[in-house]
Write a structure and sequence with these properties.
The chain is about 80% helix and about 0% strand. It has one domain (about 15-250): MetI-like (MetI-like fold), CATH 1.10.3720. It is mainly alpha-helical and about 260 residues long. About 30% of the residues are buried. It has helices at about 1-30, 40-50, 50-85, 90-100, 105-115, 125-155, 160-170, 175-185, 185-200, 205-210, 215-225, 230-250.
């Protein structure tokens, strides 16, 4: 028993060192912009760069619209499948896993071919259309995480009983979804939303090939032309991602426990 605990601690310490030592080294390197002393000059330069502010704001706005689109698509679909079409669950789960299998570059090249300026739906003929297409692409990339978060939330509630009770009181389908189901799975939806936000903030491939002024291409551009600023940006991006993950962990404490319903 003691031997098992010893090796468990060894594995934990080695894993923590593997994870934190490169991060600490990156942070320490980002402080070396001023020769001979440690300073936050690289962070000041990055945060004061108008391109950083513009691209980060663009990605935040894109993340918000991606989350809204994901909620509008996933919540009704997952609810209806759990309520009326449980036989389709394996098929839908397989479809939602496809963005993990198909590379983003393949998806975006398909978008370019299908929605170019000469297509019946020329999204890429305007900046607004290209940004809308980017949001759709981001929603596709985030689909596996959003769907599983919402599906997990739906498992913790009695969907059929809540629906029947709402119908007895005269509620329509829109009211049932927005005022009965959504509040009960809000924690799960927020978890999927934070995962979506973390994906959108650092995504490079789609934004670059669609020529959008997003944060991911800015990170790559700075990394190709500077030394210390990319390290500072990496630490900032890591902090944003871990902030989202910490919020998910915090929200999960308030999530209802699984009721193990068969619906």
């Amino acid at each position: 028993m003691k031997s098992g605990k010893f090796w468990a601690w060894v594995v934990f310490i080695v894993s923590a060192a593997y994870f934190f030592i490169p991060l600490i080294a990156t942070f320490e390197f980002s402080l070396r912009l001023r020769r001979g002393v440690h300073s936050f000059d690289a962070y000041q330069i990055v945060l004061g760069d108008p391109r950083f502010q513009a691209t980060f704001l663009y990605s935040v706005v894109a993340a918000v619209f991606t989350i809204i689109l994901g909620v509008l698509v996933v919540v009704p679909a997952a609810y209806w499948i759990r309520l009326r079409l449980p036989q389709l669950r394996p098929i839908v789960e397989f479809i939602t896993l496809l963005p993990l299998v198909i590379p983003a570059i393949v998806i975006v090249f398909g978008y370019i071919r299908m929605y170019g300026s000469n297509s019946p739906l020329p999204f890429l003929a305007s900046d607004f259309g290209a940004s809308a297409l980017l949001v759709i692409g981001y929603a596709t990339l985030a689909l596996p995480y959003m769907y599983r978060a919402v599906d997990t939330g739906l498992r913790t509630i009695d969907v059929r009983t809540l629906t029947e009770a709402a119908q007895i009181l005269g509620a329509g389908w829109g009211t049932i979804i927005t005022r009965v189901i959504l509040p009960n799975v809000l924690i799960a939806v927020l978890s999927g939303a934070f995962l979506t936000f973390a994906i959108v903030i650092g995504e490079f491939t789609m934004a670059s090939l669609l020529n959008r002024p997003a944060f991911g291409p800015y990170l790559q551009n700075i990394g190709a032309n500077r030394a210390y600023e990319p390290a500072a940006l990496a630490v900032i991006a890591f902090a944003i991602t871990w902030g989202c993950m910490s919020l998910i962990q915090l929200l999960s404490r308030f999530a209802p426990k699984s009721a193990n319903r068969p619906n």
